[in-house]
Amino acid sequence: MKVIAAYLLAVLGGNVEPSADDLKNILGSVGAEADDGKIDLLLSEVKGKDITELIASGREKFASVPSGGGGAIAVAAPAGGGGAAAPAAAEPKKEEKVEEKEESDDDMGFSLFD
């Protein structure tokens, strides 16, 4: 994930096609180790592709994954989306009441195992 984040930061900074050295510099600036294999794999997968199109296709795939909640997922349109239609509003979530445990004065309101 850190390699992907570094790639996205480079693109956001205006570098349309970041190199492996660019990603290593970004990761090194925050003290993270750069894995050459992961960097090479990422760069080979995104070579010649538009990052906004990759993100849009990823959102479509992610939207089809069941989340277990049964609610609709609202996805915001990308900033440069042009005349794209707004996504449907998400269904309001049902609020569930959660019973609070009575706290004892001995543990000062928190426990190691809570």
TrEMBL record:
Q: Which InterPro entries match?
A: P1/P2_N_sf, Ribosomal_P1/P2, Ribosomal_P2
Tell me if Thylakoid is a UniProt keyword of this record.
no
Residue spans crossing the bilayer: none
Question: What keywords would UniProt list here?
Answer: Ribonucleoprotein, Ribosomal protein
According to the UniProt record, where is the region Disordered? Answer: 79-114
Pfam families listed in its UniProt record: Ribosomal_60s (PF00428)
Output compositional bias ranges, type Basic and acidic residues.
91-100
**GO CC terms on record?**
cytosolic large ribosomal subunit
Q: Does the keyword Transcription regulation apply?
A: no
User: What Gene Ontology molecular-function terms does this entry list?
Assistant: structural constituent of ribosome
One GO BP: cytoplasmic translational elongation
Explain the purpose of this protein: Plays an important role in the elongation step of protein synthesis.
Report the family membership.
Answer: Belongs to the eukaryotic ribosomal protein P1/P2 family.
Q: How does it assemble?
A: P1 and P2 exist as dimers at the large ribosomal subunit.
Any idea what this protein is called?
Answer: Uncharacterized protein
| Organism of provenance | Acorus calamus (Sweet flag)
